[in-house]
Amino acid sequence: MIIVAFLAILLSVIAFFPLKIFIDNRHACETPNLCETHQTNTVKNISYTFTKTASTLVASTILTTAAIELTTNTSASLTYQTAALNSANDALMLQSKVFNGIISRIIIGHNKEIFSVTVLNDQSIASGSVKEINIWDSVSGKLIRTMNAHSGKIYSLATMEDGRLVSSGRDNTLIIWDPNTGKAVQALNEHTNYVKCLTVLKGNRIVSGSNDKTIIIWDGNNGQKLNKLVGHRNWVYSLAALKGERLASGSYDDGIIKIWNLTSGKEIKSWQGHADTVRCLLALPGNRLASGSYDNTIIIWDLGNYTRLYKLELHTQDVLALVLLKDERMMASASEDKTIRLWDIETGRTIKRLQGHTNHVRSLAVLADGRLVSGSIDKSLIIWK
Fold first, then answer.
1. Are 21 and 67 a contacting pair, CB within 8 Å?
2. Would you say the pTM of this structure is higher than 0.85?
């Protein structure tokens, strides 16, 4: 009876133990070679003994023991052997589902924070950190190449119509890259302060917003400046390309959103959309705009009459990124509160709350197959499905 009772208690603990601890510490991933590259104060040579009748109990017991060891030493890291990961694959997938969403893959490779993410035309992923951009295979998670040219933080990345990559950063510079060779094609140096945000337009045009309070439109084919938009009284922190040759921009601290006519370069509309910095903007179907702010809120606007449709208030810290999902009915938001939320843009209701990162989630992108990519100050990328 004592043995039966002990097994019952053990199974209960295994069933309800917070398995998320592995992913919270960025040590669980689906593919062994990704985990093997992670830096480590290591618990090595974890053995998994499986039999046809008792494999689940034994594997869960070992995983739980390792989790308890991690809980008592949060600075520790785990490096799993390939055999151990293969044996524990089902258990790790179960952990992923605990996060109110399914983690397809965790990619670890940057030595510093990730500030920006974009998807290239061949569906590889580009991530910007401090001085370096990494290109990753979105299927295997393997590093394809590293590109270096910036001298500081890389705040924004965007993919041009012809497949080239453009980056901007703390060094006041934009750089156009050939992602296939990793070579910098051209540097654009008109801004006089940090270049915080980018978007791209048809015809390989690039739009950049800067702490010098200006927006510059560039011809990405030759690097020439086409126009400079002046009107913000504070740093330009966010941009979104709109239909009809229009542009939305948001600024630091004052909560101002502006709509511009890109043909004439003139301002169409300006209003205070938030009580704090407008950190991110997203064009939505139906002539709508979403704005995310340091006031912890997201607002969906009708650009026909510039009225507020919905105010989304579930994030508990700054909203840092927005992206439209493949079905164009949902958008994802990333926050300083370490979470990602999925929203129904037709109703304003939250659908899911995704947890996996252990620090601010700074950037989002969407792959052609619909998977969501997030980049974080915790130095990791997560691909969600």
1. yes
2. no
